[in-house]
């Protein structure tokens, strides 16, 4: 039996599967603000975060639950809600003169057309400059909820909500 071990225990958040430190380091090296997207079953959270020595600073925070104020009556965890959340987050960021960012999806696997990229598409449509591949973004039919409208036989009126979000002023606060 050996007396010395060569096994090094990984950091706690890595062991729990909550943080990919190599990916985080690469994002921080870019020295840009990050568009942090977190998806759960019933909610989408989009934040603009800036790195700080004493901890990250959240500049803009938006959740899909805020869409109710704009007349959204659908489920808050689908692609439509993700797009509108990204649009709202991007609009708030542009109102605070935050023009560019880098997408931070955490430990999510990037899947073409997924909710994460719907948030990205919303932020880009709001006027933010974020590097992306157009092939990864969801189609306009998915973003506007055509399949949901056909299935539920109810119009979610995504276009009207989109216009409400874009017309509202989000200044510095």
How would you summarize the topology of this molecule?
Blueprint: H1 12-15, H2 21-29, E1 34-39, E2 44-50, E3 57-63, H3 79-95, E4 100-104, H4 115-125, E5 129-130, H5 140-143, H6 146-152, H7 158-167
Parallel strand pairs: 1-4, 4-5
Antiparallel strand pairs: 1-2, 2-3
Helix pairs in contact: 3-4, 3-7
Largest sheet: 5 strands, mixed
Helical residues, percent: 25-40%
Count the DSSP helices.
Answer: 7
Shape: globular
Report the strand count.
5
Whole-number tally of structural domains:
1
| Largest sheet, spatial ordering of strands | 3-2-1-4-5
CATH fold group: Nucleotidyltransferase, domain 5
**Element order: H for helix, E for strand:** HHEEEHEHEHHH
Highest CATH level, the class: Alpha Beta
Give the termini separation: 63 Å
Radius of gyration: 18 Å
Low-confidence residue ranges? none
Provide keyphrases for this structure.
173 residues; alpha/beta; Nucleotidyltransferase, domain 5; 7 helices; 5 strands
